Amino acid sequence: MPTDAIHYGRPGKRARTAAGLALAVGATLLSGCASSEGPPVLTWYINPDDGGQAAIAKICSDQADGAYTIETSLLPSDAGAQREQLARRLAAGDDTMDIMSLDPPFVPELAEPGYLAPVPDDVAERTTRDVVEGAVTGAKWKDKVVVVPFWANTQILWYRKSVAAAAGLDMTQPVTWQQLIDAAQSQGKYLGVQGARAESMTVWVNALIESAGGTIVENPDAPADEIKLGLDSGAGTQAAEIISTIGKAGLGGPGLPTQTENTSMIQFQGDQGSFMVNYPFVWPATNAAVEAGTLPADLIDDIGWTLYPQVNAGVETAPPLGGIDLGVGSESKHQDLSYQAIECIVSPDNQSLYFTTNGNPPAKTAAYDAPGVSETFPMADTIRESLELAKPRPQTPYYNEVSTGIQQTWTPPSAVNPDTTPATSAEFILQVLKGEKLL
User: Fold this and answer.
1) CA 403 to CA 374: how far, in whole Å?
2) H/E element holding 400?
3) Per-domain residue ranges of the chain
């Protein structure tokens, strides 16, 4: 997920998205892979992982029977920097953009100016069949599949069984944010959330508003100066109340204003841990620390998990959606082969392999039933259920402006005011979109 926003010029009409991206072309482009002999070489631009994408590239190259080989090219570790490099290459017409690992919020920005090769109808049908609902939604722009879901990610609610029992919470039933706030306060514990001025704040605000029945961007395919925001709404007020309460009461811990996914996990693992919203990486990371002897052995037995908290009791939650989609550049010389390779990459076998070795949850539902998945991730069913309910962050070509505007106006959590923050945030973002203010 991006933590540093990148602003491509002054936003205005939709066409300025493409123009803004093109302004970055002057930067030096990395050389692509090419081969004068043998099968065509497909370049797959990958985000950093634990070697899983490179391993899948080899598997699919071996299975191609000489039709193609896949070579991986590593993108920067920061998602914002990934976006910048990919945008520069695509705007420059780079013909090595055969396969790209894309953060879902960037998809509309790249699809709108035509930087992505169309997904063939038969490929779209096969690669979205039996895929979790959240990932299918995130792979579309203007109701059309424009990228292929590879893996999906979501936050679930982690809890310390001992704290929940002491607070009298029945964790076999859905719980609300208010119940967690009350339970943490009653036990004198910290509630694990991400309060840093970073992409994680947009993730939190979006999940709260969606769970309350609202949406941040109401007309996502509108031009910049016609966008309507749902921040200043009943759902926005409820989101602000939750964030404000946690911030002002000190429930997030002393480090809340700079707290990220990793630091909230560390806090949760300690004596003050109680409940935490976070990604599945928490499980292998905690097990590794226990095995290394840096955390007590009995911690694992005290950790439980369930779906993301509800905002309103009895109303289905809308957990965050993350993950990676695979796109093909519109100037790629090997578009047909690239989509053949993508179908191999996203096969259930490869998705389950990626889950068990790199910890990234599958988009394909069948991959959750593969051998070894439930042993490695005993909460796999909860993750799959969460992904069926998950909602993407605002899908708009102006995502950067929207997300950065939220980060600047909803932090620190202790400064959030339910009476003013939603309206102030909406006004600021709209002014940025109209070119009246700068981020």
Assistant:
1) 35
2) helix 399-409
3) 15-153+323-384, 156-319+396-433
pTM, entire model: 0.89
Distance between CA atoms of residues 140 and 335, nearest Å: 19
Distance of CA 340 to the CA centre of its chain: 25
Q: What is the CATH number of domain 15-153+323-384?
A: 3.40.190.10
Which tokens is 119 given?
């997904």
**Is 154 within 8 Å of 138 (Cβ atoms)?**
no
**CATH topology match: 15-153+323-384 vs 156-319+396-433:** yes
Exposure string over 163-187, b if 16+ CB within 10 A, otherwise e: bbeebebeeeebbbbbbbbebbbeb
pLDDT of 79 reads 82
CA distances from 37 to 30, 34, 68 (A): 22, 9, 11
pLDDT per residue as tens digits for the range 344-396: 999 999 999 999 999 999 999 999 999 999 999 999 999 999 999 999 999 99
Chain centroid to CA 332:
26
CA 9 to chain centre: 25
Q: How far apart are CA 105 and CA 68, in angstroms?
A: 30
Asked if CATH classification 3.40.190.10 holds for the domain at 156-319+396-433, the reply, yes or no, is: yes
Closest CA relative to residue 126, chosen from 137, 136, 138, 116: 136
Closest CA to 188 of 262, 123, 250: 250
Pairing of strands 303-306, 156-160: antiparallel
Rounded Cα–Cα distance for residues 190 and 184 (Å): 6
Residue 309 · residue 177 · CB < 8 Å = yes
